[in-house]
Fold this sequence. Notes:
This protein is of the alpha/beta class. The chain has one domain (7-270, 289-309): 3-Layer(aba) Sandwich (Rossmann fold). 36% of the residues lie in helices and 14% in strands. The chain contains twelve helices and seven strands. The chain has helices at 7-10, 21-35, 68-77, 96-112, 139-142, 156-168, 187-193, 215-228, 241-244, 251-262, 274-280, 291-297; strands at residues 128-132, 149-154, 176-179, 202-206, 232-239, 283-290, 311-318. It has a seven-stranded mixed beta sheet with strand order 3-2-1-4-5-7-6, sandwiched between helices. α2 (21-35) packs across α4 (96-112). The structure holds S-adenosylmethionine. S-adenosylmethionine binds next to α2 and β2.
Amino acid sequence: MQGEVTDTQSKEVKSTDAQSKVSDTGLCTNFWKHHGKGVPSENPYVNEPGKREKPLYKNQFMSLFINEEVIETVRQMQPEPCMDVEGTNNTSMLLTDPLRHKYILQTLKDVVGVKKKALIPKENRVTQVVILGSGYDTTPVRKKAYPVKFFELDRAEVFKRKQRIYDDNNIEPNAIYIPLDYVKNNFIDALKEQGLDVTQPTYIIWEGNTMYLDKPSVIQVLNRIKEAFLTVYITFDYFSESLVNKRSGIPSADDITDKFSQAKAQFTNGYDDISILAEECGFRMIDNQTMAVFGKTLQVEENPHPLSENYSLCTLTPE
Ligand SMILES: C[S@@+](CC[C@H](N)C(=O)[O-])C[C@H]1O[C@@H](n2cnc3c(N)ncnc32)[C@H](O)[C@@H]1O
C-alpha cells in the first residue's frame, strides 16, 4: 500500500475558523494512536511497562494521515517532555488516546459478537455501527470483515481529506460518510436517509468528542439516541470536571488544557460522576472505568500518568 502524503495535501491541514480547530485535533489523536499502539516495552508513551507482550492493536492505515504539517501541529499541542507528579514522565499522558481506541475496538468486538464470550445476548448483536465525530478514525477500513454497516458523521472538510487520502491509496472507506453538524441537526434523520435501520441493534462510537461540547448538547445527543433505537449501545470517553477546570493539581494536564485552548479546541465539559448523566438521560451503565485502571488491566502501564485518573471510558444502553 502507498502511504505517501503529498505536499499539496499537507497545505490543507490547518483549518481557519475556530470551530473547525476541533477537527484538526482529529489529526493529532490519529498521530498519538499510531505512535502509541505498540508493545509496552517499546511504546514511547508508556511510563513503566506492564507484562503485556502484544501491541495494543495493529493498524497500517493511521500513518496515511500523518505528514510534516501534522507533525508540526502535534508538536505545538503536546507538552514539552518533563517529569511530572508521582514520578511519571508527562509524555505518558498521551497513552490515553491509544487506550481509548483499544477500549473501543474491544467493545466493538463484543457487540458485533466476534468474541467467544460476548458481553451481550446473541439476539442483540449489532449490525450497524455509527461513528459520531469520526475524524480520521480508520476502524471501518480496518474491520472490513465485521458483518456490520458503518456510518460516519463529521464535518465536510474532514471527509474531503479522508476520502482523498483513501482514494489516493485505492482504499475503499467501508463506511457511509454523512457530512453534518450532529449537534445542530437531527442526525438520526440524516442516518435514516442514508439507509440506517433504527429497528436493528446498533453500536455508537462517540470518541474524543464530549470534552468539546456543552452539557445540553451531550444530553440532546443521548436523548435522540434513546428515542430513536430499539437496541443501542454507546461508548464515549470523558474528562473529570476538575481536569477541565484546571483543578486537578497536575501541571502537565493544565499545560495541555492551555495548549488545546490556545489552538481553539477548548475543553469545555467534564463529569465527576457519569452515573448522574446516565440516569438523567435514562441510560444504564454497562461499563465505566478510568484509563488508569484500563491500562493496568491490559498490563500496559504499571505507573499510569495521573491525568489518566481523570479520564474515563464508559459504555451505556437505554434502560
Ligand atoms: C478530537 S476529534 C476525534 C476524532 C475521532 N473520533 C478520534 O477519536 O480519533 C473530534 C472530531 O469530532 C468532530 N466533531 C466535533 N463536534 C462535531 C459536531 N458537532 N458535528 C460533527 N462533527 C463534530 C470534529 O470535526 C473532529 O473530527
